[in-house]
Design brief:
Structural class: alpha/beta
Shape: globular
Radius of gyration: 25 Å
Strand content: 5-15%
Helix content: 40-55%
Length: about 500
C-alpha cells in the first residue's frame, strides 16, 4: 500500500517494489504490504491437518438423506468434508449409504455420517452407533443432544488407543463433531466422558477398561460446532452472541483439564453468503458448516418442487414448527413458511395433543377439521398405517401405544410430521402445501446473493460450487476489511463479491 503525499492511502496490485534513484523525489510513500490471503487459510490450520482437507468447510447433515451420498462424495473429492444425513432413516438405508461411501471413497477419511439424539427411540440410536463403530466411519456429527447418552459416548471413545505418533499420545478411531447451541451442552462435549457412563459401558462389554481409562484424559469431542439460527432443530440464537461464549468456555476447560491437543470451535447457522461466512471466521470460528442452502444443490435429495419453493424464499419466509422426533417434548424445528401450510398445521396437531388425553377425547368439530384439512384420513385409518410403520421399525412403540392412548395420539400426529418431509423429498404433487422443508434465514441471504449469477441456475448449483464461492467470497470480504482497517478507501462492491464458476 502506498500513497502520494497529501492523498489518502491507495493500493498497488502486484508488480515489484522499486526504491527511488539517489537524489530523485519519491512519488509515493510505502506504508506497508499485505500478503496474499487464500480461502484455505481462513480457519484453524489444525482442522485441515486433522481431517485431511484443504478447506475449513463442512457441508452439514440435512436429515432423511437430503444430504446424500453424492453430496458427501463430491465434497470429499473437492478436499472438503461432508456428512450424510442419516437422521430419520431406517438402519438398512444408513447401512447401504455407508457401504456406498466406502466403495466411492476407498482411500479417503474426510467424510462422515450424522448421529442424531433419539430420546423417543433409544434402541435405534444404539443400533446406529453399532453400525458406525463396526463400519469404521471416520467422522460422526452428533446433533440435537441436550444430555449425553451411552450411545454417543461410546461412539466418541470406542477404539481409543495409545499411539506415540499422535498429538498427546492418544489416537481416536473416529472424530466426533458435536453440534450445540447452549453453553451447558457444549460443556458436556468439551469435558471427558462422565465416569458413570463409562462404567456402565464397560459393564455391558461395549468398552474395554483401557478405552475407558483413556477416555478420562480427552474431551468427548475435539470439534464442537456452534449452531446459531438455522434450519431444523435450533434455538434461534445469534452467532455473534453464542460463538464467543462457547469459545471462552473451551479455553477454560482446556486449561482446567490440561488437554494437549487443540479443540476447534466451528460455526453453523445463518451462513448463506460470503459476508456471513467471513463474519464467522472473523469471530474466531475454526471452520464453518452450511446446511439450509445445500438443499438447493444438484446433489441434494430434495424434489425439484421443494427446491423451487426454497429458491423463492427470503429472509423472513421461515417459521417454527413441532419436531417429529421430539414431538412429546415440545421441541421445535425451523422450516420454510412461504408456499406451505405445514408449520400452521403441525402446530394445530401439537395444540390438540396438549389439550386432550386421547384421540377419543377430541371434540367432533376439531376431529373433523384435522381429518379433512391436515391428515386427509380418519384417525382410525391413520393409526392403522402408523401401527404398521412401527411394527416394522420398533414394535415396542406399538405395545406402548396399545396401553397408552395419549401415546397413540402422539404417534398418529407424528406420522403427519414424518410424512410431510417425505413428501418434500419425493415431490408428492397432491401434498405441496404440506411440505416440511427444514430451512433457516440463510436461504434468503443465499437467494439474494446468487440472483443473476451462475448459482441461480439449478444445473450449475452443485454443493462444491456453493462451497468454493462462499470460501472465495469470504476471503475477498476479509481482504477488503483488512484494507479498510489500514485506511484505504474500499468500494462497497468489495464487500459483495459475486458468484462465478470455479474449479
Amino acid at each position: 500500500m502506498h500513497s502520494r503525499a497529501g492523498y489518502e492511502p491507495g493500493v498497488g496490485l502486484g508488480g515489484r517494489l522499486l526504491t527511488p534513484a539517489a537524489g530523485a523525489e519519491p512519488g509515493y510513500e510505502l506504508l506497508g504490504t499485505l500478503p496474499a490471503l487464500y480461502p484455505e487459510w481462513l480457519g484453524d490450520r489444525s482442522f485441515n491437518r486433522t481431517h485431511g482437507v484443504r478447506f475449513p468447510y463442512v457441508a452439514g447433515e440435512m436429515a432423511n438423506g437430503i444430504a446424500t451420498v453424492a453430496s458427501v462424495v463430491a465434497m470429499a473429492r473437492a478436499q472438503m468434508l461432508g456428512f450424510f444425513g442419516a437422521a430419520g432413516l431406517a438402519l438398512p438405508a444408513v447401512e447401504r449409504a455407508v457401504q456406498e461411501l466406502r466403495r466411492s471413497l476407498p482411500d479417503r477419511d474426510n467424510w462422515g455420517v450424522n448421529l442424531i439424539h433419539s430420546p423417543a427411540e433409544p434402541g435405534h440410536e444404539e443400533r446406529l452407533v453399532d453400525l458406525l463403530v463396526r463400519a469404521a466411519v471416520p467422522k460422526v456429527s452428533a446433533s440435537a443432544y441436550l444430555e449425553l447418552t451411552p450411545a454417543v459416548v461410546r461412539c466418541a471413545v470406542a477404539g481409543l488407543r495409545l499411539d506415540a505418533g499422535a498429538d498427546g499420545g492418544i489416537a481416536r478411531a473416529r472424530q466426533l463433531f458435536a453440534k450445540v447451541s447452549r453453553p451447558e451442552v457444549a460443556e458436556k462435549f468439551l469435558s471427558p466422558a462422565p465416569p458413570e457412563i463409562l462404567r456402565r459401558l464397560v459393564e455391558r462389554g461395549q468398552l474395554t477398561r483401557d478405552e475407558a481409562d483413556l477416555a478420562a484424559r480427552v474431551p468427548l469431542a475435539e470439534d464442537v460446532t456452534v449452531e446459531a439460527d438455522s434450519g431444523g432443530h435450533t434455538d434461534n440464537r445469534p452467532l455473534a452472541v453464542v460463538l464467543p461464549v462457547i469459545r471462552a468456555l473451551r479455553d477454560e476447560l482446556q486449561r482446567r483439564n490440561g488437554y494437549s491437543r487443540p479443540i476447534r470451535i466451528g460455526a453453523a447457522g445463518g451462513l448463506g453468503d460470503p459476508a456471513g461466512v467471513a463474519a464467522a471466521f472473523a469471530a474466531g470460528a475454526a471452520y464453518v458448516v452450511t446446511g439450509t442452502i445445500n438443499q438447493l444443490s444438484r446433489e441434494a435429495g430434495l424434489s425439484d418442487a421443494a427446491k423451487g419453493l426454497l429458491a423463492q424464499a427470503d429472509l423472513a419466509d421461515v417459521a417454527m414448527a413441532p419436531a417429529a422426533d421430539m414431538f412429546e417434548y415440545g421441541i421445535k424445528v425451523q422450516v420454510l413458511r412461504r408456499g406451505t401450510l405445514f408449520a400452521a398445521r403441525a402446530s394445530q396437531l401439537y395444540e390438540t395433543y396438549l389439550a386432550h388425553r386421547s384421540l377419543a377425547d377430541i371434540p367432533d368439530a376439531t376431529r373433523e377439521r384435522l381429518e379433512k384439512d391436515v391428515l386427509r384420513a380418519t384417525f382410525e385409518d391413520c393409526w392403522e398405517q402408523t401401527r404398521q410403520f412401527w411394527l416394522d421399525r420398533d414394535p415396542r412403540e406399538v405395545d406402548r401405544a396399545e396401553q397408552d392412548p395419549r401415546h397413540r395420539m402422539a404417534l398418529v400426529f407424528r406420522s403427519y410430521l414424518g410424512l410431510s418431509s417425505r413428501w418434500a423429498i419425493t415431490g408428492e404433487p397432491t401434498r405441496l402445501t404440506d411440505y416440511q422443508i427444514w430451512c433457516g434465514p440463510a436461504i434468503g441471504a443465499f437467494n439474494r446473493w446468487a440472483a443473476g449469477s451462475p448459482l441461480a441456475q439449478p444445473a450449475r448449483r452443485t454443493v462444491v460450487q456453493i462451497a468454493l464461492n462462499l470460501l472465495e467470497g469470504a476471503a475477498m470480504v476479509t481482504r477488503a476489511h483488512q484494507l479498510r482497517c489500514y485506511g484505504v478507501p474500499v468500494p462497497a462492491e468489495a464487500f459483495a463479491p459475486r458468484p462465478r464458476l470455479l474449479s
